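Workshop exercise sheet. Pairs work together: one partner reads the sequence aloud, the other fills in the structure field after running the prediction. Swap roles for the next sheet.
Pair: D.N. / O.F.
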Amino acid sequence: MRVLLDECVPRPLKREFAGFDVAHVTELGWAGRRNGVLLASMRDEGFGTLVTVDRNLQFQQNIPAADMIVVVLYAPTNRIPDLRQLMPGVRDILATAKPGTVYRVGVWPEANSV
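Structure field:
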């Protein structure tokens, strides 16, 4: 499975994806691409999964139509120590993930929180 880390995810998190073919957006020269263009580029280059901390992507793009797996990380920050804690859940999801689906890993705020 080819996994792409979005530019908002620190590049060193790649080390946490043992057994996966992982690239970071900046390594491919794709930094700054809008989400729709990024998903199209992913499809063209054979990536099936995007890992991001962008909580809005799932509402801005038609993920089922893109036929991609999107994993949204919910952590207090996008720093390695906070994201590393989510990796067991990410690996579990990637083992059974279905294309066209958005998965959320971590603790997301309550709908009523201020």
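Discussion prompt: The two ends are 38 Å apart (CA to CA). What would you look at next?
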